[in-house]
Amino acid sequence: MSKIIFRQLFDAESSTYTYLLGSNKEAILIDPVFEQADRDLKLVNELGLQLKYAINTHCHADHVTSTGLIKSRLPHVKSMIAKVSGAKADIHLLEGDKIHVGDLEFKCIATPGHTNGCMCFYLEKEGVLFTGDAILIRGCGRTDFQQGDSGRLYDGVWQKIFTLPEETIIYPAHDYKGNTSSTVGEEKKLNPRFTKSKQEFIDFMKNLGLAYPKKIDVSLPANLECGIDYKPQ
Ligand SMILES: N[C@@H](CCC(=O)N[C@@H](CSS)C(=O)NCC(=O)O)C(=O)O
């Protein structure tokens, strides 16, 4: 088993976490942000890794993915996203698919609700889960656009995430308060949204009252094209 490389990288403008994982010289970027492509590719290079995949947990509404830009620079890199997201990608993922990067094996777990195409990526052996916006630390992704559905989110989290070992480390796609990670056990006990009953959760999400993301009109169409040919204004 080769050494695992792991980096949690932050985009301050969108409060997005991008994750770089490497094993046996191969690497994957999870949820890379357009404006951070230079930073991410420089790091991949510095660490002597060959980027194999650029993957998105869902079609983001608040920032443009850098997968298209990365592919224009490194044409061998394959982009991936859940098939049901409707977004373009080289590889469309389904529930239960496995992604191999060096010695790492990610299992795809569909968790629709924030969007219809949300997927978590689970490193079972290492006990690590990349949750996208399905679970945020002490929170969760909003459900008021992109076929959002609070009931589906609640059921998916309880049935597919909260049934994983309690010590599983959770890495979300965003944090707005400076948190970096959590665990399944911690969120099951302390997440103020998912500790509600399903009906209370649905009512709470209906009244969240968040303004639409500032970049939604640019991000959604660009991300449906996997960020390919996206030119910032
Ligand atoms: N202010 C930000 C958008 C903040 C936001 O809506 N975040 C989303 C995830 S990105 S679509 C969310 O689900 N938040 C849940 C929450 O409870 O905060 C912007 O303008 O980009």
Explain what this protein looks like in three dimensions:
There is one protein chain. By secondary structure, the protein is α/β, with parallel strands linked by helices. The chain has one domain (4-224): Metallo-beta-lactamase, Chain A (4-Layer Sandwich). 23% of the residues lie in helices and 27% in strands. It has six helices and twelve strands. It has helices at residues 37-46, 67-73, 150-161, 184-190, 198-206, 216-224; strands spanning 4-11, 16-23, 26-30, 50-55, 78-82, 91-93, 98-101, 104-110, 119-123, 128-132, 169-172, 182-183. The strands form two sheets. Strands 1-2-3-4-5-6 form a six-stranded mixed β-sheet, with helices on one face. It has a six-stranded mixed β-sheet with strand order 7-8-9-10-11-12. Helix 3 (150-161) crosses helix 5 (198-206). The radius of gyration is 17 Å and the shape is globular. Bound molecules: ligand L3IBWBLD. Residues 14, 61-62, 133, 139, 141-142, 174, 176, 210, 213-215 line the site of ligand L3IBWBLD.
